[in-house]
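so i finally got all the pieces together for this one. its two components total, 686 residues if u count the protein bits. some of the lines might not be protein, just check the labels. i wanna see the whole assembly predicted at once instead of chain by chain like last time, that was a mess tbh
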Amino acid sequence: MDEKKTSTKHQIEAKKQVENVVVTETPEHPSYHKNLSNLDIKTVYTPEDIKGLDYDADIGFPGEFPFVRGVHPTMYRGRLWTMRQFAGFGSAEETNKRYHYLLSHGETGLSVAFDYPTLYGYDTDHPLARGEFGKCGVAISSLVDMELLFHNIPLDKITTSMTINGPAAIIWAMYIANAENQGISKHKLGGTIQNDILKEYIAQKSYIFPPEPSMRLIVDTFEYGCKQVPKWNTISISGYHIREAGSTAVQELAFTLADGLEYVKAAMKRGLEIDTFAPRLSFFFNAHNDFFEEIAKYRAARRIWAHEMKKLGAKNPRSLWMRFHTQTAGCSLTAQQPEINIVRVTMQALAAVLGGTQSLHTNSMDEALALPSEKAVRIALRTQQIIAEETGVTNTVDPLGGSYYVEWLTDTMEEETYKYFDKIERLGGVIPAIEKSFFQKEIAESAYRYQKEIEDKKRIIVGVNRYKLEEDLGIPLLQMDEKGEERQIQRLNKLRKDRDNAAMQRHLAGLRKAAQGTENLMPHLLSCVHSYATLGETCGVLREVFGEYKEQAIF
Amino acid sequence: MEKKIRVLVAKPGLDGHDRGAKIVARALRDAGMEVIYTGLHQTAEQIVTTAIQEDVDVIGLSLLSGAHMTLFLDVATMLRQKQIDDVLIVGGGIIPEEDVPRLKEAGIAEVFGPGTPVETIVTFVKKNVKR
């Protein structure tokens, strides 16, 4: 039988199947058959849906261009993903205890959550920090706090991811300085700084400076990193927060990759050779509720990135790799019947693994209510360990490759992404599109539609709009040390008194001068933090030179 | 014609999570209210000043950073100090159940947690607006 006949046969079979369903006594459920990107999903997929697909050119083998099936040939058979729980609360001492707890239970990488003052480059005693100390992450105001945060953790053996953006370069300098003080060479340090300011303007909103100086700082870290800290991922280009702010999966994919390309172009404009910095670019995606859509999203991301990087002239295969971290969707957690979040997280985590993630954070069941308790985070970590050790999904690479549905969805998400790329280009690029609130409006629109779908019961959220309980089941929540803030402020006061203030001021003056010019700021930031200038003092100099960003308030 | 209810949707503190605030703002507007959104990073003082200038009937505070026990209470205290008692204050965000009684005592009329249908918020505001 020739190829054409085969596909026609399949087409007819598929049609028959649909008709059968319609005419039999069990008609299709009249509920919503749209995925979370609002794409219509058919009853069944057949070879007809992927007839244009060429295995070698469009899919290929794992570890080979265009890397749809994964960036490594053996994936989890060679090495499991890094189990990296995002953690931080209260003071550096409390968070350090949590890190030791997580490591003792089998976590394989660290991930730092900072509190809001730190994210905005303020010290704990700044007036705008009122009420925020340690609430959604750990407070790090100086190198002293950084030393306490990593007390008894071998920085040359463990990799650390730090979710920090506006003041990323300063916090990174503190991490490097802490290692240097312990006699560990920068060349040995592994980890990631998020350092993705574009998605801050778009979604997460912890920006400090306007776009131009922010992009300069980021390129400074690329340039410094590839020479001095070669094992460090100098950026984690993030869709996670775009999704949490309410985007669809397609928007998450498109906006994140558009941001990524913007950084590459900015670095190339500085004169950096693409293959020097591109291998250290990493990504960060969300894992939401629609199982196959998420898997297709990761697969499509790898293909698009590989093609685009090639177009920009990358030759090193590592420059073409879209390596990524995944976090299960915080916004999908319910405050109602919190224990059932364990089940949601399990399926989201499985999607991330089937999608070929390099590292994974699984949310704890109590995170719609507070930061996670020890018990909740242990169960979340165990969820990853069960997927890794018990389910057998790690035995083969990209087990869903070749599925008519998954391949069709991968293609479709890629097509939709390119439509967004065109729109962004017509607006003049990512930064002009931010300034026109394009992304912000697109996300707000999707968030509102999703909420309406839930309220109209077109989408069911178990425990929220169906299968509700009259009385909700409470679970014990994390209690923080109430004396933490006081201790932190005492520590800051002592530091400001004890350090060599004249030397510190000289370094801050050096930073100011450099910021007014064009040289790379990383060496200056390192001198500042080594002299125990605080985060607020260092960031304050940059605020004065660069100014602050204010967004348009739209809804 | 009946006067439209005027609502200030406000984001106190450094928290950048604005998905909920924007959805609620839009739902209240769709329900026929006049909605002013402060945007991000507002101090309690800025919120109270805007509420007075805009002569609002309702202040809706949204906070997901965990700082509600300081910042929601700051707004309520400041309003009380200015002897403003005819403005309905409601709040929402990641707020543990155990914090709710103290917030209500301070004058936050209702606290809406994750998963609250916007319809519930619209109904509550319409029913409890003080003027």
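Helices of chain B lie at 19-30, 44-53, 68-81, 100-105, 118-128.
Chain B touches chain A through 39 residues (CB under 8 Å).
anyway lmk what u think
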